[in-house]
Design a protein that fits this description.
By secondary structure, the protein is an alpha+beta fold. The protein is built from 40 helices and 32 strands. The chain folds into 4 domains: 227 residues, Uridine Diphospho-n-acetylenolpyruvylglucosamine Reductase, domain 3, CATH 3.30.465.10; 219 residues, Alpha-Beta Plaits, CATH 3.30.70.2190; 113 residues, Roll (Ubiquitin Conjugating Enzyme); 305 residues, 3-Layer(aba) Sandwich (Rossmann fold), CATH 3.40.50.1820. Keywords: ATP-binding, FAD, Flavoprotein, Hydrolase, Nucleotide-binding, Oxidoreductase, Transferase, Ubl conjugation pathway.
Length: 1058
């Protein structure tokens, strides 16, 4: 009885709570909902209402604030183009008015601004097709635009693209009341569709705060989520069909109205969320549910985020099928809405609450649904999950609750500058990011968290009085790294746009990205519409698109430029990265002059204060070779060049790093810093009267003689002044000409069906150097020159999947059969019947199997770190180590495609390199349960003396370009190798072998390996074996370069000279 009485009293208290808010709710300002949304989300009206109080800081895409350049292959608009479009569409649908263009060039956030000179408004699919067919033939870039309410810069031009707006295509084609299927044109405004369906007794499955301006075509193209996703799912489930026009003008008719159709690929899903990169959506078929008669909305308060989570769990359990929305906002969001929006009142004014939750239910029986909701609220209050709450009594109160939630974006914009992030995260982790950002930013900005808790979508917003790069540096890339670390998505519903196009790797695995590579999409888009990807990723190294009606504009500025080879994809990716880094942190005293030519940079140089060149300004011209950064760029001063002992009058610079001492780790920034240091350290402003070049060992630069007229007049671009013959008496060559031994060169060789990049040097017997994981040819940088100087032809390939070599997608392409086949192909290429092989780590594994499969091709083998083990006939290798060490072993974790890649993505590439390359015997390659090995490995606080930050960066840069999948696939083929090598069970290695291992190698200390290497079993399997143990760790050839080089040479010298 006491329990029943307490329950009854609590129920009466709850009903009192639900009704006592009515007195002040009746004072709420009533507003016309449609008009309200138009005011909030119409970019024109909203931009005007901001006035001068909040200055807008546009980011022009062509400025240094954005890391993109206009593709010179795109044509520019001319009068003939305008005439064509006017003839097609009529003058009123070809907009050139500056005020109108100002609006459509500017995104809703006022963050990005293009410079389009033309807005086209087609009225039919046929007109859209004619527009795109013409633009494709002319190579005129196009950007589709709907209501322009996007938040990531995807709906406005990057530069001067033609804007195609389908807003005039706004007809409802059909509606079937039996099936609830609506067919309409893409330009229909979402709120108009909601109103139409409401009159028909149906509901639009999509509802957004921007519904007064956004268009259904744009909603589909961005896969908009919205407020009803909890109940009705995403557009991938409700869109039944669509019609789209490809970039070449072809019309794809996928406008089906069937719920089931299993005939071939369902191509419509490619267009949902493609952000206009594949084509322009012109018509949509969408399934709409019947409107339910019972709608209830509760606005609740919670003390902490944990209570919000538990409330969501209870709502799913107890409200079940009637739960249609579950939104949350924090106190910061509520405070902004109350202070920035007129007529908004707090439904729970008695006290300040930490969190607020809006719950909506929809059903068919009012009394049942309300009773069910009240019972849920009662139990939640009893359980302490709700600290306060109110249940809407009519439509006006319901609208006032939604006004608070939907008004947050408007309040943020009115408060000043806002940095918006749309993230998907596990619900239990969502608000941790908000807390972390508050700690990280401190008093710099206000951090606001709100979103769709029901589907794990956090809207993280940082509000400040004005945009500040210092704030942005604190936010990015931290927010993306945090999201990736917790296996979230950096774009839940807003899309990538320009804001996040080059951040996709935080959410997508390398395999997925390779499938989504622009080359895979060329069947749909000839680049004129793929601006989100084409500019950010510098698609196909700015490959030449050949317009039918007009040749592409010439962007080269010299006669020699036209013959210059096109940049490789690797070079383009590297230069794009350097552009980004330059814009974030440009070297002091230098300014990059933006042009349309990625292959040639012009950089303004300002003499440093307090030096002989203070207040003087010069220009550097940097031309990049096809295989940059493996080859040095050509760097000269444009006329007039500085008067300096190390600079010829034609601008050529005597700086060692531009020639023999060039390293792929160097960048344009590092070159500039070296040049500025050279100028600043000069004590003589002029030419030193020396006959020959003299090495200045302290500065690492070269002094030059008086100007050599022949050199100045006849030297080809990029030639080193050190190679110039002196014209003094006797015509003797300069003491700094190239020696007889060739420098390290690079090429790509076709072998075994793929292309391998190799570094080579020297002449003589062939020595192959095979690297391991995670390594490149660069791991052998010390040994290459050493062995070449002693009369050997040294070749160090990037093994398949690594560096600049091809990387097949499938793990089955990385079996030992493939890897050995690659090396045999190299021998055939060099027409060598036999070679010496030196292998480390995985390179050692390849070496052992070369000796097993083709001993006739190997003179001798020097293997490092990994000994030879006979095949265990009873169990596959991965199964064996899994049983022995568990899933925490790095080999086991590497088996699942994508797992390690996602884990690695939580760190920058340099950190990943440090974690693996600097591993010591104190580390452990077995992670604790529930932890990834990359998280478990420590990052050394300081580097060991055998490697520099610049050298590590070489590895990091290459893996950033290639990804880790290829290298990880070696591990994923281990069980396949076990199957393939069955015929060699019990075979011995009969060629002469020298095995080097580090005393401190983590593998040498593991499970009896030391005893095995020093015991009889190893020698019985490798009869002609010599073992050398050095004081080193795993990456022995880099840690002890001189010792390893000498050990290799001593082994080679045992063989008779050819």
């Amino acid at each position: 009885m006491e329990k029943l009485r307490a329950s009854s009293n609590l129920r009466r208290s709850l009903k009192s709570l639900l009704t006592r808010r009515l007195s002040h709710l009746s004072d709420f300002t009533h507003f016309n909902q449609k008009r309200s949304f138009q005011t909030i989300f119409n970019p024109i009206r909203y931009y005007k209402c901001l006035g001068e109080a909040n200055a807008i800081h546009f980011r022009h895409f062509s400025s240094v604030s954005t890391p993109v350049q206009r593709n010179p292959s795109f044509s520019t608009l001319n009068s003939d183009d305008i005439s064509y479009f006017k003839g097609l569409l009529g003058e009123k649908n070809v907009i050139q008015d500056e005020d109108r263009l100002e609006t459509v060039n500017t995104d809703w956030m006022h963050k990005y601004k293009g410079s389009s000179k033309l807005l086209l408004q087609p009225r039919s699919t046929e007109e859209v097709s004619q527009i795109l067919r013409y633009c494709n033939s002319r190579c005129l870039a196009v950007v589709p635009q709907g209501g322009n309410t996007g938040l990531v810069g995807g709906s406005v031009p990057v530069f001067d693209e033609i804007i195609v707006n389908v807003g005039s295509m706004n007809n409802i084609i059909s509606f079937d009341k039996v099936s609830g299927i609506l067919v309409c044109e893409a330009g229909c405004i979402l709120e108009n569709l909601i109103s139409f369906l409401d009159n028909q007794g149906f509901v639009m499955p999509l509802d957004l705060g921007a519904k007064g301006s956004c268009q259904i075509g744009g909603n589909v193209s961005t896969n908009a989520g919205g407020l009803r996703l909890v109940r009705y799912g995403s557009l991938h489930g409700t869109v039944l069909g669509l019609e789209a026009v490809l970039a070449n003008g072809d019309v794809l008719d996928m406008l089906g109205t069937l719920r089931k159709d299993n005939t071939g690929y369902d191509l419509k899903h490619l267009f949902i969320g493609s952000e206009g990169s594949l084509g322009i959506v012109t018509k949509v078929s969408i399934l709409t549910p019947p409107k339910l008669s019972s709608v209830n909305i509760a606005f609740l308060a919670c003390n902490d985020y944990s209570s919000c989570q538990k409330l969501l769990m209870e709502a799913k359990r107890k409200l079940g099928e009637i739960l249609s929305a579950f939104e949350f906002l924090d106190n910061e969001a509520m405070d902004l809405v109350l202070h920035q929006l007129d007529g908004v009142r707090n439904p729970l004014p008695a006290s300040v609450h930490n969190f607020y939750v809006l719950i909506e239910t929809t059903g068919s029986t009012e009394s049942y649904d309300r009773e069910k909701l009240e019972a849920f609220l009662l139990s939640s209050m009893e359980g302490g999950l709700i600290s306060d709450g109110v249940l809407a009594q009519d439509i006006n109160q319901a609208s006032s609750f939604w006004r608070i939630r939907e008004g947050i974006p408007e309040a943020l914009m009115k408060a000043g500058a806002v940095y918006k992030y749309d993230l998907s995260l596990p619900v239990e982790k969502m608000y941790d990011l908000v807390d972390d950002m508050r700690v990280r930013l401190g008093n710099l900005a206000k951090v606001v968290g709100y979103g769709h808790l029901g589907d794990g979508n956090l809207h993280l917003n940082i509000s400040a009085s004005q945009y500040d790069d210092k704030i942005l540096e604190q936010i990015e890339p931290y927010v993306y790294e945090w999201t990736s670390k917790h296996r979230g998505s950096i774009s839940a519903e807003h899309g990538l746009g320009l804001m996040k196009a080059n951040k996709i790797y935080y959410s997508k695995s390398p395999e997925t990205q390779q499938v989504e590579d622009p080359r895979a999409k060329k069947q749909f888009d000839n680049c004129i519409m793929d601006l989100l990807y084409g500019y950010e990723k510098e698609r196909e190294s700015q490959r030449a698109l050949k317009p039918i009606a007009e040749a592409p504009p010439q962007s080269m500025t010299s006669s020699s430029a036209s013959s210059r080879k096109t940049l490789s994809k690797i070079a383009c990716n590297r230069l794009q990265k350097e552009l980004v880094e330059w814009q974030v942190n440009p070297p002091s005293g230098f300014k990059h002059k933006v042009t349309d030519n990625l292959q040639r940079w012009v950089i303004e140089v300002n003499g440093a204060p307090g030096t002989l060149y203070a207040n003087e300004t010069y220009q550097l011209q940097v031309d990049f070779p096809e295989h940059y950064p493996m080859e040095a760029p050509q760097v000269i001063f444009l006329h007039p060049a500085p008067l300096h002992p190390h600079i010829y009058s034609n601008g050529h610079i005597c700086l060692d790093i531009l020639y023999d001492s060039w390293s792929p780790a160097m960048t344009v920034s590092s070159i500039c810093i070296s040049i500025l240091s050279m100028l600043s350290s000069s004590t003589v402003k002029g030419i030193l009267p020396l006959l020959f070049l003299a090495r200045n060992s302290k500065l690492g630069i070269w002094q030059r003689p008086e100007d050599n007229d022949r050199y100045v007049k006849n030297c080809r671009n990029g030639r080193s002044p050190k190679e110039t013959r002196s014209q003094k008496s006797g015509g003797r060559g300069s003491m700094y000409q190239k020696g007889t031994m060739n420098e390290v060169t690079h090429q790509r060789i076709k072998t075994n069906g793929i292309w391998l990049h190799i570094a080579e040097q020297g002449t003589g017997p062939l020595v192959l150097l095979l690297h391991g994981f995670p390594e490149l040819w660069y791991s052998w940088r010390h040994q290459i020159t050493f062995l070449a100087s002693h009369g050997y032809h040294v070749v160090a390939p990037d093994l398949r999947g690594c560096g600049d070599s091809d990387a097949p997608l499938s793990p089955t392409s990385y079996s030992v059969m493939h890897l050995v086949g690659d090396i045999i192909g190299l021998l055939d290429h060099f027409q060598q019947q036999q070679a010496f092989v030196v292998g480390h780590d995985w390179g050692a594994v390849i070496g052992w199997h070369l000796c097993l499969f083709r001993p006739d091709r190997i003179k001798g083998l020097i293997n490092l770190s990994v000994p030879y083990f006979d095949r265990n006939p009873k169990a596959k290798f991965v199964d064996s180590v899994n049983k022995m060490f568990g899933d925490g072993l790095y080999i086991c974790q590497f088996q699942e495609p994508g797992r390690a890649e996602r884990a690695f993505a939580r760190y920058d590439y340099l950190t990943v390199m440090k974690k693996f390359l600097l591993i010591t015997q104190t580390d452990n390659l077995i992670a604790p349960p529930g932890m990834e090995i990359i998280d478990y490995l420590e990052t050394p606080s300081r580097l060991p003396p055998w490697i520099t930050e610049e050298e590590l960066q070489v590895f990091a840069d290459k893996f950033q370009e290639s990804g880790f999948t290829g290298a990880l696939n070696y591990y994923r083929a281990m069980d396949l190798n076990w199957e393939l090598t069955a015929p060699w069970q019990g075979s011995k290695i009969m060629v002469p072998v020298k095995f080097l291992v580090g005393e401190k190698d983590i593998g040498f200390e593991a499970n009896g390996v030391r005893d095995y290497v020093q015991g009889d079993v190893f020698r019985s399997l490798v009869p002609n074996l010599e073992v050398v143990i050095l004081d080193a760790h795993h990456f022995i050839q880099q840690e002890k370069p001189q010792q390893v080089s000498e050990e290799i040479l001593s082994f080679l010298h045992k063989f008779p000279a050819e």
